[in-house]
Amino acid sequence: MVHQLLTPVRGGRGRGGRERGFTLPELLIVIVIASVLAIAFSSMFIQAVKTYQFMDAEKDMLADTRYAEERVTRELKRVRNNTSISAATATTLTFVDRQNATVSFSWSGVSGADLLFTKSGVSQTLAKGVDSLAFRYWKQDGTAATPVLSPSATDIWRVTLYMRLIKGTQTVASFGSAFVRSL
């Protein structure tokens, strides 16, 4: 069909005495329109890829924050007794669990550094790219606690954790709370 349109009719002339086919201006218009459409579709495709990368990075950061919060909560349920908490600052929480293992959650305070979980001297990363982190401590009556640490009995009843992760220009924040089971 295309061949028929571009090839002159057997007599050499079509209706009106002109040869059949497309003129150069007609072909140029088609090429310009096709180019504009190709550019529009390619920019939509590029935007779709960027959106996917953005959502994938956000999903990974959310998974890291959830894992870190769940691990902190799980370990706080294993505090040995009310004299086992040895460090409780905005960026560090250290205690001894029921199996006499020293457990610590710490962040250096430097944006982009990792949140570390250390148990019996073995460290692992809980979350990468921490932009900010804050442990807060609460008494049983719901007021803020100024942590009393080991060897004295602590007044910490509940611990809240605010964490914000950063990856490139994206940030994800989370807030969680856990009760210290043994206290």
TrEMBL record:
Q: Which UniProt keywords apply?
A: Membrane, Transmembrane, Transmembrane helix
InterPro entries listed in its UniProt record = N_methyl_site, Pilin-like
State which residue ranges cross the membrane: 27-49
Record's superkingdom? Bacteria
One matching Pfam family, short form?
Answer: N_methyl
NCBIfam families hit by this protein:
IV_pilin_GFxxxE
Q: Give the protein's recorded name.
A: Prepilin-type N-terminal cleavage/methylation domain-containing protein
Source organism (scientific name): Eiseniibacteriota bacterium
Origin organism lineage: Bacteria, Candidatus Eiseniibacteriota
